[in-house]
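Researcher: We are triaging several targets before committing to wet-lab work. For this one, the compound of interest is zinc ion. I'm pasting the protein sequence and the ligand SMILES. What I need is the predicted three-dimensional arrangement of the protein with the ligand bound, expressed as structure tokens, so it can go straight into our comparison scripts without reformatting.
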Amino acid sequence: MIDEEKISVKKIREILESVNDPEVPVLSIIDLGILRDVIINDDEIEILITPTYSGCPAIDMISMNIKLALIENGHKKIKITSVLSPAWTTDWMSEEGKQKLKAFGIAPPTLKQQICHTELFHEGEAIQCPRCNSYHTKLISQFGSTACKALYVCETCKEPFDYFKCH
Amino acid sequence: MKERINYTIHLADNALILGHRNSEWTGFGPIIEQDIAISNIALDLIGQARNFYQYAATLISNSTAEPVTEDTLAYLRDAKDFLNCSLVEQTNGDWAKTILRQFFFSAYQFYLYQHLQNSNDEKLAAIAEKSLKEVTYHLRWSSEWVIRLGDGTEESNKRILTAVDDLWICTGELFEATGFEQTAANKGYGVDVSLLKSDWMQKVRDIFEEATLPLPVETESQVKWFGKEGKHSEHLGYILAEMQFLQRTYPNSEW
Ligand SMILES: [Zn+2]
């Protein structure tokens, strides 16, 4: 019985690897760290997810895509529960996810304790340009194309780029 | 239960109304990066409002037979039933007024959520913990702008001084607890707002000093409206007219 349960949670997680963040389509919800748990109660599957930001508009779409992926694989009773605490942090992003982000042209988040500053006008966070790898980059705005990103520009290759800001 | 519901709705209304105000800048920001920044802050606040409304809707549904959702709370209540403070409903004015309103409110929310994280109501504590991370960014961003404008050009300094004149009068209300806030604080699920005042004043003092702005004097007239009790300025009605028009004219319509 216990073995069977283990296998099915593993299988569910495998299915969920195909569910991506609609705003950063190279990352799965597992890479992002927003899948918190899979619980199997008899015939019902409960999926616990956490939003990246309170107002993340992607979360409703992600819930729907989780349901669709599970239904496609023959599961019928699905419950999605949103958990807010502990609050999501970029430290939950997988190493694989960070590599995928960089390949996609978005600078991955640095470790929180390393660089998450709250001081005013703080500059010089050494964010590496995802295109040319230069550290000679400059913050343009703390708020980028989506809530989870900041806008930087590379002084070496002159390209602007998104940085998945630490949170 | 009535107090807990009102307290939750009050937290939601504060976030929704300021979120809505900020969203009025979308497409009109002074430069594109700041247009995006203020729109992102709007999004965070509306997200926080949704979390509080969803919880309030659960509380109401559990205690009455009324079918209530986050949408009925946002779209089908009238101005006198909104429990937001009057600061958040003030008009955008120019960039300086918007910035100062955000700074005053973010500093307030920052200390409020810090305490609310320890609420004995698990749900309120979780929303506060989540929101605090976002508010930390809002506070940093708006603080930098207050300094930039105050210590900027003659024109920017003049404008932010005018904003202080317009908005200071709305800040006293933040720290004067109304009935449901007192009950919430006494029962341990809410925050005693009078205790936030010294931290908030210190923050304002620090930022104003760096911004070379004179600190306004505290006076009795620091409270003009009492939105938390539904006694709003004339501005709230206009916000609701725009925000609720679609739902009221075409009930149950969806995007
Ligand atoms: Zn570069």
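Researcher: Any quick observations?
Model: Helices of chain A lie at 2-16, 29-32, 58-72, 95-104, 112-115.
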